[in-house]
Specification:
The chain has 5 helices and no strands. It is mainly alpha-helical and 155 residues long.
Length: 155
């Protein structure tokens, strides 16, 4: 038979004691980290930046205060307005995708396709006749005669 732990008075106290000892141990381990370990460091005088580092370390400058933080801008739209603008952008995107789907691109009427093709041919200029294959082959033969093969690799 297994009796529930709540029936035993010492069970709760041992858990509480274990927690207290765990927190105390963690505190003891981190307490040593509280000191300023860099307060007694020295700069190597042979270092090329020794003079500059000493000057910066000993400089007494004014640090910014919380009062120096500028006030929040008032000309910014409210967060709800950003959400509405984002929703408008998503709606516009969906409209563009819907309007440019593949099935929506058609040329109206039978003559418009031919008119488009004729206009494209006119814009491209006159059609050039293909080169004579005999002339091309003669040119390639001349280049092969003049070509010098690469030297063999050195071994």
């Amino acid at each position: 038979m297994k009796a529930p732990a709540r029936l035993f008075a010492n069970v709760r106290h041992t858990r509480m004691a274990a927690r207290i000892f765990a927190f105390a141990g963690a505190y003891a381990l981190t307490a040593a980290c509280g000191g300023n370990l860099l307060s007694d460091t020295t700069i190597d005088p042979k270092s090329p930046i020794a003079a500059e580092a000493a000057k910066v370390a000993n400089a007494r400058t004014a640090f910014p205060k919380f009062s120096d933080i500028p006030a929040a801008p008032t000309d910014v739209r409210a967060p709800r307005a950003f959400g509405l603008a984002a929703a408008d952008t998503v709606r516009s995107r969906d409209d563009i995708v819907r309007a440019t789907e593949p099935s929506t691109w058609t040329l109206q009427g039978g003559d418009s396709t031919n008119a488009f093709a004729t206009q494209a041919r006119t814009a491209a200029g006159p059609q050039i006749a293909p080169a004579d294959p005999a002339v091309t082959e003669a040119f390639a033969r001349e280049l092969r005669k003049r070509a010098t093969p690469p030297p063999p690799p050195k071994r």
